[in-house]
Design brief:
Strands 2-1-3-4 form a four-stranded antiparallel beta sheet. The longest helix is centred in the C-terminal third of the chain and has 12 residues, at about 95-105. It contains three helices and four strands. The chain is globular, with a radius of gyration of 15 Å. By secondary structure, the chain is α+β, with helices and mostly antiparallel strands. Helix content is about 30%, strand content about 20%. The protein has one domain. The protein starts with 16 loop residues before the first strand and ends with a helix.
Length: about 100
């Protein structure tokens, strides 16, 4: 009997993957944002948060299938954005709201 192919993307084996849980509010509720494989890294996530690519990010989760771990990194990402805040010329209102919500948790 042959072995089934892995559903884990090949490039995911070499780096941490970051996914965003968005809160669309009301009847729509929360859902994980679609993310292209090449955009699932930390640097791209930070850039997307700054630029306002997410409507209302509620939680950020990171995982690494090679190392066998996953964790909620919402606070870590918010802390990094706060430390780097002076570097940004303009930030999206959604990022400011994210920082406020993350500070309450």
């Amino acid at each position: 009997m042959g072995q089934s192919p892995s559903i884990v993307p090949q490039s995911a084996a070499s780096h941490d993957v970051y996914l965003v849980l968005e809160d669309f509010g009301g009847r729509l509720g929360r859902a994980w944002s679609e993310t292209a494989e090449e955009d699932s890294n930390r640097a791209t996530l930070l850039r997307h948060l700054i630029e306002g690519h997410y409507i209302r990010p509620a939680r950020i989760v990171a995982f690494n299938t090679t190392e066998g771990w996953s964790r909620d990194v919402t606070t870590d990402i918010a802390d990094e954005l706060r430390r780097r805040f002076v570097e940004f010329e303009d930030v999206a209102p959604s990022m400011l709201e994210f920082l406020e919500r993350a500070a309450r948790h």
